[in-house]
Amino acid sequence: MAEKNKYFKVIVVGERGIGMTSFVRRYAEGLFPEYISKVYGLDYRLKVTKEKGVTFKIQVWDKMCSQEFRYVYEGYTSTADVVCLLYDITSMKSFLELEFWLKQVSNVQRKLIIGLKCDLEERREVSRSKGESFAKNRGLDFIEVSAKEGTNMDKVLNPHNICISNLHTARKDCILAEKEKEANINHCRIM
């Protein structure tokens, strides 16, 4: 029997300097880099996992979010299965900017709110309940992680996690949308 492959594109957005690149590297490569060179424009990492005869190939795209790259273009998000909206729990400013980022990725159906740096509890500015409430009020999943310590990183976009279930649903939605496209109704593009 041939092995099944599932491909997913995940986009990570948030304010500059909150640890997005560290998050991407820890998730995809399982390491926390002590030094990270700046990301200019776009970068991605590939995470490959096998579960029950299915190979999941997850592209995680990191976007430089300095002022000149602050806006997310629809062409960039049109092929995304999931967008991870990140904020730093030690920065209320990064949390407040989630509204801006939600507008930037409004064309992507599946979104996940992720609070970074949960290992820095003593410096927390955004309570867990505030993050959970923000996500719940928008019908989104929520998790707090620490890229440095690896806390909850195994629960982010894990094949056993509801987020991957959402990815499967998104894939089915796109197949249905392709059928609708043939009938000149609507369409959805995937990788």
Automatic annotation (TrEMBL):
GO terms for molecular function: GTP binding; GTPase activity. SMART domains: RAB, RAS, RHO. Keywords: GTP-binding, Nucleotide-binding. InterPro entries: P-loop_NTPase, Rab, Small_GTP-bd, Small_GTPase. This is Ras-related protein Rab-30. It comes from Oopsacas minuta.
